[in-house]
């Protein structure tokens, strides 16, 4: 159909334009349903007139602010789900109550009372149908063209100097056959470069079928990230794999193979716009100073180290209990003699070891500590809760107390959105770690404590992207826990830079939030990866597709969606992607007693008591009824089979098996 060719253009609109368009459509539906309500009541199909016109501004002034407040324009319409429809129902119910009060209960002469009842009902149907139609038109028209597959024929997107050089290099090989160029310059359409024609990118779907194209190679190194995302988005529906240009040295060799091309970067999969960092904030706590990173061998900690080394510290202390992780990041940062051995120092040690943390700080006197050491895999911590509590809470407490004692000026905790109204031990333990720093900050002192809370980082250990790539390469299925699961996402480099900048703005006890953008449905990310691999999803609408999705169900204590705020009062900072939250916390005198009881329960292996204490400490946390700790479950099993354990065996587990 003709309108199909315009869908990529609509999807490429900036987010604010899409929201404004949706708002305009809803405003038009308000007016249209008003007219229809009058027509039904009066059996007169003419225009509104006289006093009837008063209902229009009243309707718009009441409805639109309510729609905005209920978040009707935050959802991505082509992936709209039940949560969005529920928001529509709630918003229109509130609007209907107000509208009915004005025109039915109070009443205005000349306006039938039934209009106050009819119009909200018609509006609910109209807006609901508009979302359904939008979802169908935008989400269901991409995969309608079937074509033959060919591994050899490729299109090059970009007919500039780099694209031409790529075409020449591919012409010298035998694996790939360039059948055309795509370019945004309309003056090039129909012309030939080296005997190969330049086509309009809008004709891509037709070209894929006509020329048996399997892969599109992007050769536009100079474009900005926004335009790059627009191009990638426009390629999604054509069932072609999208690959990035190899480096210039490979092109210069004049022979390029398909394996030389790179997969789309994680930020391309997100379609997220990057913001240039504030160099002053980056340098404030790092340039020319001694910096310490705990958990330096982990995915987030190691990226923090990379970003810190780019800024130029006097010395970087890498602290981790994982020998291989510590070796790997140290080897990377000192490879080929790029850094003086004395400027990057690997230090083995656990953050729960008070003596080790104190001696490291006393010896090297760090100016800033970035505390990234934590157990963060939700199901794993749920199965090993005592260790999770010990590492995430008391490890933070040990490092923080050592920092106070050694008068470290800056301490930044890497926190998580799972600390907000947590449903699992990992999130609850991270919230308690935040409470520890907030309470210590209130006591005053020379150490400025802050914490930075953000969502999932793509590319970290346990990230879904490497897993999905592996499953796609194996032919599927892609395993998902729930079709409606959403997460906030950010790349590790961007998150690390924002953590450093947030820490530089800290005044003491600050809870910083990173702007993660719109929440992303995991199933949509998986679908995007499948489509940009040149494949299709196998489902009821497309039984002949390539990759199936398999729903495995939510794991223990896993949430469908995450939040960044406990209270709805964020304050914008000087950085556009960093906000500050103002949240309640316990004074140190009260928290210290609770921590002592928690440590006693932890040391005795009393999981039941530990979970109860966590529930009292953390607002919104209600431990699940089921205990899934592997050790506790095995002890329960042994008790059921053989009766109570001997005193010397059961004493450490008494709390868990009662």
Automatic annotation (TrEMBL):
CDD domains assigned: UDP_invert_4-6DH_SDR_e (cd05237)
Cross-referenced InterPro entries: NAD(P)-bd_dom_sf, Polysac_CapD-like, Polysaccharide_Synthase-Rel
Lineage, highest ranks first: Bacteria, Pseudomonadati, Pseudomonadota, Alphaproteobacteria, Hyphomicrobiales
SUPFAM superfamilies listed in its UniProt record: NAD(P)-binding Rossmann-fold domains (SSF51735)
The protein's name in its UniProt record: Polysaccharide biosynthesis protein
Keyword Kinase assigned: no
UniProt keyword terms in alphabetical order: Membrane, Transmembrane, Transmembrane helix
Record has Transmembrane helix as a keyword: yes
Bilayer-crossing regions: 20-38, 50-72, 84-111
Domain (Polysaccharide biosynthesis protein CapD-like): residue spans on this chain: 291-581
Pfam families: Polysacc_synt_2 (PF02719)
Record-stated family: Belongs to the polysaccharide synthase family.
């Amino acid at each position: 159909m003709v309108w199909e060719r315009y869908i990529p253009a609509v999807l490429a609109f900036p987010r604010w334009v899409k929201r404004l368009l949706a708002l305009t459509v809803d405003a038009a539906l308000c007016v249209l349903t008003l007219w229809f309500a009058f027509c039904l009541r009066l059996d007169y199909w003419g225009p509104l007139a006289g006093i009837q016109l008063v209902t229009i501004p009243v309707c718009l002034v009441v409805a639109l602010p309510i729609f905005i407040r209920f978040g009707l324009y935050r959802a991505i319409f082509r992936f709209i789900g039940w949560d969005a429809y529920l928001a529509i129902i709630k918003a229109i119910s509130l609007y209907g109550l107000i509208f009915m009060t004005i025109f039915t209960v109070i009443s205005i002469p000349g306006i039938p009372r039934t209009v106050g009842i009819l119009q909200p009902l018609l509006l609910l149907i109209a807006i609901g149908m508009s979302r359904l139609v939008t979802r169908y038109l935008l989400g269901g028209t991409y995969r309608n063209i079937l074509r033959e597959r060919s591994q050899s024929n490729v299109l090059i997107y970009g007919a500039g100097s780099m694209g031409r050089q790529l075409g020449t290099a591919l012409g010298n090989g035998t694996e790939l056959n360039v059948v055309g160029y795509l370019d945004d310059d309309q003056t090039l359409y129909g012309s030939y470069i080296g005997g190969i024609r330049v086509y309009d990118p809008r004709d891509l779907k037709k070209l894929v079928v006509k020329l048996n194209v399997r892969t599109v190679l992007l050769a536009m190194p100079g474009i900005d990230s926004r335009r790059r995302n627009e191009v990638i988005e426009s390629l999604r529906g054509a069932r072609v794999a999208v690959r990035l240009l190899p480096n210039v040295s490979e092109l210069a060799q004049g022979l390029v193979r398909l394996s030389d091309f790179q997969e789309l970067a994680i930020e391309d999969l997100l379609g997220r716009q990057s913001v240039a960092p504030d160099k002053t904030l980056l340098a404030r706590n790092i340039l020319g100073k001694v910096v310490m990173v705990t958990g330096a061998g982990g995915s987030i900690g190691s990226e923090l180290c990379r970003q810190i080394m780019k800024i130029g510290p006097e010395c970087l202390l890498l602290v981790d209990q994982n020998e291989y992780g510590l070796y790997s990041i140290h080897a990377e940062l000192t490879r080929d003699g790029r850094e003086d051995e004395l400027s990057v120092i690997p230090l083995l040690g656990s953050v729960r070891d008070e003596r080790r943390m104190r001696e490291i700080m006393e010896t090297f006197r760090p100016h800033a500590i970035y505390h990234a050491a934590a157990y963060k895999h939700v199901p794993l911590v749920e199965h090993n809760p005592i260790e999770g509590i010990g590492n995430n809470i008391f490890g933070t407490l040990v490092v923080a107390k050592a920092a106070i004692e050694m008068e470290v000026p800056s301490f930044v905790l890497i926190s998580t959105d799972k600390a907000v109204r947590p449903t699992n031990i990992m999130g609850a333990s991270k919230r308690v770690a935040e409470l520890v720093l907030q309470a210590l900050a209130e006591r005053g002192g020379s150490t400025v404590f802050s914490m930075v809370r953000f969502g999932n980082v793509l590319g970290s250990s346990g990230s879904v992207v490497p897993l999905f790539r592996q499953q796609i390469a194996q032919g599927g299925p892609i395993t998902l826990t729930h079709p409606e699961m959403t997460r906030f996402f950010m790349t590790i480099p961007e998150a690390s830079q924002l953590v450093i900048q947030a820490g530089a703005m800290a005044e003491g006890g600050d809870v910083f939030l990173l702007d993660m953008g719109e929440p992303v449905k995991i199933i949509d990310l998986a679908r995007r990866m499948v489509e940009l691999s040149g494949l299709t999803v196998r489902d009821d609408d497309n039984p002949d597709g390539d990759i199936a999705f398999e729903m495995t169900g939510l794991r223990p204590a896993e949430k469908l969606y995450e939040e960044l705020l406990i209270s709805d009062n964020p304050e914008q900072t000087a950085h556009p992607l960093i906000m500050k939250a103002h949240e309640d916390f316990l004074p140190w005198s009260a928290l210290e007693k609770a921590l002592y009881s928690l440590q006693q329960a932890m040391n005795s292996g009393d999981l039941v008591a530990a979970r109860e204490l966590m529930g009292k400490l953390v607002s919104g946390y209600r431990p699940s009824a089921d205990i899934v700790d592997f050790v506790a479950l095995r002890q329960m099993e042994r008790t059921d089979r053989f009766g109570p354990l001997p005193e010397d065996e059961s004493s450490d587990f008494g709390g868990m098996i009662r």
